[in-house]
């Protein structure tokens, strides 16, 4: 992956956005390890933690002429998953309400992801999870952007 690909620029913008959300303590590009019963490497000092994982883009080709050999640009959809982990020892429902609101507002501040994207769609998952002593929830981000054959 190119260090300055559009995909990477979009993911870094999401990370930067989440780092500016005051209620999020840590932002990571990996999810904490889970052994089926507990999180192995989730330190309470890092909570609330937002884990950001980007998928591969799904390009939809656009033609400049009538032949497939003449693609000029593509419109791609890039899915980005954000999982927020927090300490659930005191009033987890209130904590979820506060965190999801803060993350929602932050992700909507710039829907163009720094001018790279056409649009950003933010969709919280309906189900929250309680893995004692943690609570977690997922937010799916779908970013639409255009690019040529020289970068994805």
The name CATH uses for the topology is Alpha-Beta Plaits
H/E series, N to C?
Answer: HEEEEHEEE
| Domain tally | 1
> According to CATH, what is the class?
Alpha Beta
Let me know the number of strands: 7
Report how far the terminal alpha carbons are from each other. 9 Å
State the helicity in percent bands: 10-25%
Biggest β-sheet, characterized?
Answer: 7 strands, mixed
Shape: elongated
Q: What's the gyration radius in Å?
A: 18 Å
Q: Low-confidence runs (pLDDT<50, min 5 residues)?
A: none
In the CATH hierarchy, what is the architecture at level 2?
2-Layer Sandwich
Query: Which superfamily, in CATH terms, is the homologous superfamily?
Result: Phage minor tail protein U
Helix/strand/pairing category: alpha+beta
**Beta-strand fraction estimate:** 35-45%
Number of helices: 2
Mean pLDDT: 89
What do these coordinates show?
By secondary structure, this protein is an alpha+beta fold. It has a single domain (6-147), classed as Alpha-Beta Plaits. The protein is built from two helices and seven strands; from the N terminus they run αββββαβββ. The protein has helices spanning 6-19, 92-107, and strands spanning 26-28, 49-54, 58-63, 71-87, 119-124, 129-131, 134-147. It is elongated, with a radius of gyration of 18 Å. 27% of the residues are buried. The model has no long low-confidence stretch (mean pLDDT 89).
């Amino acid at each position: 992956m190119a260090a300055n690909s559009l995909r990477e620029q979009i993911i870094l913008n999401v990370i930067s956005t989440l780092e500016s959300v005051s209620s999020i303590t840590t932002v990571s590009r990996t999810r904490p390890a889970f052994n089926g019963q507990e999180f192995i490497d989730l330190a309470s000092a890092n909570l609330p933690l937002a884990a950001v994982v980007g998928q591969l883009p799904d390009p939809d080709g656009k033609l400049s002429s009538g032949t497939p050999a003449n693609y000029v640009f593509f419109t791609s959809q890039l899915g980005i998953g954000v999982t927020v982990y927090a300490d659930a020892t005191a009033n987890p429902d209130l904590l979820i309400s506060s965190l999801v609101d803060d993350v929602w507002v932050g992700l909507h501040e710039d829907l163009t992801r720094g001018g790279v994207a056409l649009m950003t769609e933010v969709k919280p998952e309906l189900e929250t999870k309680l893995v004692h002593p943690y609570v977690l929830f997922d937010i799916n981000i779908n970013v639409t952007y255009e690019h040529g054959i020289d970068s994805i």
